[in-house]
């Protein structure tokens, strides 16, 4: 099992290197272009030349990448070309915003989609049809459209919750909850829609297994069959669903943040990409890749822990 | 315009298969949802393509006298904060959506299907390498990369969509590879190889044909995602601001939400409905093309109507009076079991009567599909959910279990127990053997943990497991099949039942282990005076262990005899055939 996890770890590192290198070469491939973006359209050719050298963009790409990679290890990701702010500093401000939205949505997704999935698979009939209808509708409507609808309803018409903005929990816990409620709901609908229908198939699959019939024949109550045996055995596929859902959630959060004017990773990536502030873009890509890889690795770890075959091997 | 590619109208087909395809199309057109979705998507294509002729004005024409005009006036959908006609902008913007669809489809299908075909057909190195890359791509946060891409390309939706096509190509790759790996082993592909067709011919004629359905289905879902992403990127302000698109219009309306809230509705509706149409169409296509034969469990109301319609419409020979002998433990009378199908029901058991006495082992023999297992399941109330009991009684010591759910629950596991066929698949792989047995025993008998454990350990030893403590702690994958069957027999007799239903208990075992398992069942019967129904297709097992035999054919019991009479003097022709064929098998095996 340790060997299998080690393999996954190596694979994860390989994915990390490939994705960051490809992104890095795309971002830093055009040194003069970056310099011109920093200096503005009126800069002279000589100014641009000088700026390229000042920013170290004249070095070979591999050297620049190696330096950047070294910075990843030592925790120095460079500074914004525009504001001079340290990238790590920017990330440490932005990440908590995105993570609080994503993690809360993830936890709620697990709870709701497990309940819906189990209900749909176990009861069948109209419960199943309702869940599948919600799944189709929820997965079809883009999260930013849902966000706009929510702002319309809860912020503009009912005035229950703030439409935009973010309040840090260190300032006011109530304000924090109010400020992320709508973003979380906007993300949650699509996320639950995707996860619930997949979880439903996982549960339905386990329900068809022979051992479930045998457990029933032994006189074990249906409730403990479903909540002990069926849930336990559908946890493996469920974890895969969940790790894919995380990637989806991060993508969704990035867009949602703009609707709700949350100062998170999405806003950071978007603004710096539009400005051409490559160190910040690179930092954002790095942070998100790392989150995705960590989540996937944790899912693998949990999957191995749940599977007695893998655990004892 | 291939933007309508999820519609099956644009698939190229060889003429030989035209009739089948036409029937698929016809089936699709009989489904109202599909017709509605196709019509809407065709309308969207028309909506975009007709912009140059039918749009009221150009995309960026501003009417300074009509800023933030409300809809249904001079401007049908109103105007934005610059006085631009929203309907016109959406029509022109549809062109970008259509272009995005084409790019996404071409890129993802070309990359995904080609690599999937090669990887699936040739396997080897190419497969592992492309598999790795598909894993890498799937692990990437696509939206973030598309935003980062802006740094490099500026506002360039076609390039962003091409990149998105690459990002989604693994879903085609995995799909196609999986199917091709399956098709590759099919006989007709082997036949084509033997005939000497080139790989290219085989792939294009046979393999490509096998993947078309699933690929079309995926196209619908990928386009749905693609349109959402395309509009999303524009909505983020990463599109070309001088060109209208659904996302740009949505963004501008959203920024203007306090002045003209209604204007947000149109682009939001357009995006959502188009994506919804694609998702719904994908679902319908899945149903039609994948032709899922899986029977869905009927709803409660359907069950009621099935029972009302089919119960006792066909009088069966059953309902014989209970025999006078008072040692009958389990009596089945007039049992009818059916499964719903598209037009009604298929009855698989047509009124079966059967008695098992205390201490009797009653063999239930017949070919597979004759309804033996259905009878076994119904006595325990563990029929599959889609099964319907149309009539009959299962009487345990005078109590009708089919009429009373509570009585069935009380009897199950406690008074009637079940020994399944396939030992390994009947143990929950995630729990230790001890915990499964304990949970079963303690849910039918109130007893303290340590007592239950001692009881089970003693019983495991009784069923011939030498190292009971170790097996108790083991997971199912750590023990052999024969051992697992002993565990299952132990689980069945743990609560000291009166009746055991054994469904082919030896079929999955090695011959030597078979004999031991039968010996064990016989020993337990002798010790405890168990009544046993032994479902089997193996007449050797019947001769070895059974006292009486019922022979089943097509859901009916055709002959019922004590075992010696049956073997020496079978009444029915069918029984004679069964005996003859089983003897010839024995002779072959001996030879």
Task: Tell me briefly what this model is.
Chain A is mainly alpha-helical and 313 residues long.
Kindly describe this structure.
The complex is a heterodimer of chains A (313) and B (591). Chain A has 313 residues and is mainly alpha-helical. Chain A has helices spanning 2-28, 31-39, 45-54, 61-74, 87-123, 125-140, 143-157, 173-207, 210-217, 222-259, 265-275, 278-306, 308-312. In chain A, helix 5 packs parallel to helix 12 (278-306). The longest helix of chain A is centred in the C-terminal third of the chain and has 38 residues, at 222-259. Chain A is globular and about 85 Å long. The N and C termini of chain A lie close together (6 Å). The mean pLDDT of chain A is 85. Chain B has 591 residues and is of the alpha/beta class. Chain B has helices at residues 18-29, 32-49, 51-54, 86-122, 124-138, 142-153, 157-184, 187-195, 199-235, 246-255, 265-289, 300-310, 372-380, 405-411, 433-444, 449-462, 468-473, 481-493, 511-528, 539-545, 563-568, 573-590; strands at 328-340, 345-357, 361-365, 388-396, 399-400, 416-419, 499-503, 531-536, 548-553, 556-562. Chain B has a six-stranded mixed sheet with strand order 6-7-8-3-9-10, with helices on both faces. A four-stranded antiparallel sheet of chain B has the order 2-1-4-5. Mean pLDDT of chain B is 82; it is low at 1-19 and 313-320. Classes of the chains: A mainly alpha (313), B alpha/beta (591).
């Amino acid at each position: 099992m340790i060997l299998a996890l080690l393999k996954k770890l190596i694979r994860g590192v390989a994915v990390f290197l490939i994705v960051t290198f490809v992104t890095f070469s795309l971002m830093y491939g055009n040194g003069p272009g970056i310099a011109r973006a920093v200096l503005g359209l009126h800069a002279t050719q000589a100014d641009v030349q000088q700026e390229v050298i000042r920013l170290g963009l004249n070095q070979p790409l591999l050297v620049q990448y190696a330096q950047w990679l070294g910075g990843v290890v030592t925790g120095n990701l460079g500074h914004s070309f525009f504001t001079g702010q340290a990238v790590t500093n920017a990330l440490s401000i932005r990440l908590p915003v995105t993570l609080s939205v994503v993690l809360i949505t993830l936890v709620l997704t697990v709870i709701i989609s497990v309940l819906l999935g189990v209900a749909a698979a176990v009861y069948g009939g109209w419960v199943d049809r309702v869940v599948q209808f919600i799944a189709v509708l929820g997965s079809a409507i883009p999260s930013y459209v849902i966000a706009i609808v929510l702002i319309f309803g809860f912020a503009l018409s009912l005035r229950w919750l703030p439409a935009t903005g973010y309040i840090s929990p260190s300032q006011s816990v109530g304000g924090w909850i109010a400020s992320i409620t709508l973003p979380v709901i906007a993300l949650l609908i699509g996320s639950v829609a995707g996860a619930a229908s997949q979880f439903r198939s996982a549960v339905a699959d386990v329900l068809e297994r022979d051992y479930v019939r045998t457990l029933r024949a032994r006189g074990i109550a249906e409730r403990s069959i479903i909540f002990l045996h069926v849930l336990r055995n559908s946890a493996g596929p469920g974890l895969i669903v969940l790790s894919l859902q995380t990637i989806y959630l991060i993508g969704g959060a990035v867009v949602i943040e703009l609707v709700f004017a949350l100062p998170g990773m999405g806003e950071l990536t978007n603004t710096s990409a539009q400005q051409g502030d490559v160190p910040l873009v690179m930092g954002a890509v790095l942070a998100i890749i790392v989150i995705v890889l960590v989540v996937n690795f944790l899912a693998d770890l949990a999957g191995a822990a749940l599977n007695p075959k893998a655990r004892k091997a | 315009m291939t933007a309508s590619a999820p519609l099956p109208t644009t698939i190229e087909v060889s003429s030989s298969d035209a009739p089948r395809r036409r029937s698929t199309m016809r089936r699709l057109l009989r489904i109202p949802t599909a017709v509605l979705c196709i019509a809407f998507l065709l309308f969207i294509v028309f909506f975009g393509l007709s912009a140059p002729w039918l749009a009221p004005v150009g995309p960026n024409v501003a009417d300074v006298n009509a800023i933030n005009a409300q809809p249904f006036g001079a401007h049908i959908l109103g105007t934005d904060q610059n006085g631009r006609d929203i309907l016109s902008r959406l029509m022109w913007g549809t062109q970008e959506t259509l272009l995005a669809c084409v790019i996404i489809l071409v890129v993802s299908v070309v990359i995904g299907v080609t690599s999937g075909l090669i990887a699936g057909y040739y396997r080897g190195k190419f497969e592992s390498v492309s598999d790795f890359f598909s894993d890498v791509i799937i692990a990437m946060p696509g939206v973030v990369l598309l935003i980062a891409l802006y740094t490099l390309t500026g506002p360039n939706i076609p390039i962003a969509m091409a990149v998105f096509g690459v990002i989604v190509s693994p879903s085609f790759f995995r799909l196609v590879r999986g199917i091709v790996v399956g098709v590759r082993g099919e006989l007709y592909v082997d036949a084509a190889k033997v005939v000497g067709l080139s790989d290219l011919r085989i792939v294009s004629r046979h393999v490509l044909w096998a993947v078309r359905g699933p690929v079309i289905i995926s196209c619908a879902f990928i386009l749905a995602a693609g349109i959402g992403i395309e509009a999303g990127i524009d909505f983020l302000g990463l599109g070309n601001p001088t060109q209208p698109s659904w996302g740009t219009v949505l963004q501008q309306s959203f920024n203007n939400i306090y002045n003209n809230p209604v204007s947000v509705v149109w682009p939001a509706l357009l995006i959502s409905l188009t994506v919804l149409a694609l998702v719904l169409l994908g679902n319908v296509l899945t149903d039609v093309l994948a032709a899922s034969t899986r029977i869905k469990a009927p709803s409660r109301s359907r069950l009621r109507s099935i029972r009302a319609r089919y119960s006792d419409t066909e009088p069966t020979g059953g309902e014989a009076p209970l025999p006078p002998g008072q040692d009958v433990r389990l009596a089945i009378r007039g049992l009818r079991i059916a499964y719903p199908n598209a037009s009604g029901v298929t009855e698989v058991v047509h009124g079966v009567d059967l008695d098992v006495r205390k201490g009797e082992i009653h063999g239930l023999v017949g070919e597979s599909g004759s309804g033996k297992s259905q009878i076994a399941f119904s006595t325990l109330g563990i029929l599959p959910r889609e099964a319907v009991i149309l009539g009959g009684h299962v009487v345990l010591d005078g109590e009708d279990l089919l009429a009373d759910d509570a009585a069935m629950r009380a009897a199950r596991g406690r008074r009637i127990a079940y020994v399944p066929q396939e030992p390994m698949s009947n143990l929950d792989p995630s729990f230790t053997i001890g915990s499964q047995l304990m949970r079963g025993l303690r849910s039918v008998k109130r007893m303290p943990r340590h007592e239950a454990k001692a009881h089970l350990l003693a019983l495991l030893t009784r069923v011939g497991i030498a190292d009971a403590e170790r097996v108790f702690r083991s997971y199912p994958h750590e023990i052999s099949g024969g051992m697992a069957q002993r565990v299952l027999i132990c689980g069945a007799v743990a609560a000291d039942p009166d009746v055991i239903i054994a469904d082919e208990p030896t079929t999955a075992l090695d011959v030597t282990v078979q004999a031991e398992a039968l010996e064990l069942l016989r020993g337990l019967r002798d010790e405890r005076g168990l009544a046993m129904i032994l479902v089997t297709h193996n007449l050797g097992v019947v001769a070895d262990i059974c006292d009486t035999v019922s022979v089943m054919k097509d859901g009916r019991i055709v002959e019922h005899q004590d075992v010696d009479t049956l073997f020496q003097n079978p009444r029915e022709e069918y029984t004679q055939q069964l005996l003859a064929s089983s003897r010839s098998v024995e002779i072959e095996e001996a030879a």
